[in-house]
Amino acid sequence: MGEDKRLAAVVALAQGMAAAQGARDAWRAAATGACRALGGSFAALSVWERELGRLKVLVNVGERAAGEDEFPEDESYPVHQFPEITEFLHERWAGGGEPNAWVETAEGPAAGRRPGYVHQRVAALRRRGRGCCVVAPIVLNGRAWGELYVARRLGVPAFGRADADFATVLAAVVAAGIAQAERLEEVRRLAYTDALTGLANRRAVDARLDEAVERHRADGTVVSLVVCDLNGLKRVNDTRGHAVGDRLLERFGSVLSLCGAMLPGALAARLGGDEFCLLAVGPTADEVVKAADELCRRAAELELGEGVACGVASTQDPIGPVRSARRLFRLADAAQYRAKALRAGQPVVAGREGPDDPVVRLADEPSPTLPVERRRFRGRQD
Predict the structure, then answer these.
(1) Facing residues of 132 across strands?
(2) What are the tens digits of pLDDT across the range 74-94?
(3) Can you tell me the distance from the alpha carbon of 347 to that of 295, in angstroms, rounded to the nearest whole number?
(4) b (16+ CB within 10 A) / e for 43-60
């Protein structure tokens, strides 16, 4: 491959990773771009999981052999089988050098490869019908991150020294793309996270609830929402300061997260101020009420604050058809107002109240008796 073509291949790889919408897209773009650039038939991207002592495969592209899924759940190899990654860290990088790629063939060592660690990869090449591979360590923020692996099928000319050098360049481009993808993921995470408690924020709830209600409308999936107000926060802020109030919010956030763990896949969120919620998709209404009851009990035991007012609304209860996220939120919100009015020590559940209850019955419309600021629906408009 000429220099112009290789330069174009590098640009294409970088552009592919830059256009990725998430981590998986970035991994696929990295492996696919490297495979094309090197004229390979297969490529994989792996990460070194230090705490587990293994090289975990993130993505496989191209001509995959049996057992090589595109995004494998648990395809990994003990690092001691491929110790080059740690050898490079200690022997080559400490002196300021760069971790160069190397080539291996189904027959044994090749272009610029030191013998000694060959047998595992050679066996893998033979087992999967491949003739050669080039392996390029990936360095991110000065540390070994993982490796880029590109292979060619049997009968095709093997990689040479020039290919290994080019693979080193590609690995650097991949490292830059991964760093960008990780930064974007962090930005996305922060955009959907409450800074004080670490819980999901209102934006995350809006997005997840919209999706959940669409699922409910499509296949009847049970969707439940717990909305709660933390009592006594203003008193704590006024008498003991906002730093103490923040600690109360953090502690309650931990309690909410703990109770949310009772419901598989539940989203625990802070909506803002002293308002929190749990969104559960799949668990039964009774399971959600049980978790909400536990939440009330634990909140009452917090050293600061005055417990929590908790309202629940579930599509499994007799609340009428739920065609929008707005309606479910209104029902849960109205039940929470009822709990606050009653100073209830347990959750109030929409649809399980008496038919004449004015708050639950009129949950779809703001009550004229409520203050204006409490009438505003906190969610998205239809």
Answers:
(1) 105, 152
(2) 898 877 666 665 555 444 444
(3) 9
(4) bbbbbbeeeeebbebbbb
Phi, psi of 362, rounded to the nearest 5 degrees? -105, 30
Strands 102-105 and 130-140: antiparallel
Written as six digits, the tokens of 329 are 């939120």
C-alpha closest to that of 65 among 133, 136, 147? 133
Q: Which amino acid is it at 133?
A: C
Strand-pair category, 102-105 with 348-349: unpaired
Q: Over the stretch 240-249, which tens digit does the pLDDT of each residue have?
A: 999 999 999 9
Radius of gyration (C-alpha) of the chain in whole angstroms: 28
Which residue has 């906002």 as its token pair? 242
Q: For residues 12 and 124, what is the distance between their CA atoms, to the nearest angstrom?
A: 29
Give residue 270's pLDDT band: very low, low, confident or very high (50, 70, 90).
Answer: very high
- DSSP for 288-333? HHHHHHHHHHHHHTSSSS--EEEEEEETTSSS----SHHHHHHHHH
The sign of the torsion formed by the CA atoms of 287, 291, 294, 296 equals negative
What is the H or E stretch that residue 222 is in?
none
Query: CA–CA separation, 116 vs 82, rounded Å?
Result: 10
The 10 Å Cβ neighbour count of residue 36 is 17
d(CA 120, CA 101): 17
Query: Which tens digits make up the pLDDT trace of 86-127?
Result: 555 444 444 445 568 888 888 865 544 554 445 677 888 888
Q: pTM for the whole thing?
A: 0.56
Tokens 């090589």 belong to: 68
CB-side neighbour CA atoms (13 Å) of 98: 13
Burial of 169 (0-12, 13-18, 19+ CB in 10 A): middle
Q: Give, in order, the Cα–Cα distances in Å from 364 to each of 117, 224, 356.
A: 69, 16, 15
Convert the pLDDT of each residue in 309-360 to its tens digit.
Answer: 999 999 999 999 999 999 999 999 999 999 999 999 899 999 986 433 433 4
Q: CA distances (Å), 245 to each of 159, 196, 200, 212, 302, in order?
A: 63, 11, 19, 33, 12
From the list 189, 188, 206, the residue with the least C-alpha distance to 198 is 189
The token pair at 96 is 């300021």
Q: What is the pLDDT of residues 32-48, one digit of tens each?
A: 999 999 999 999 999 98
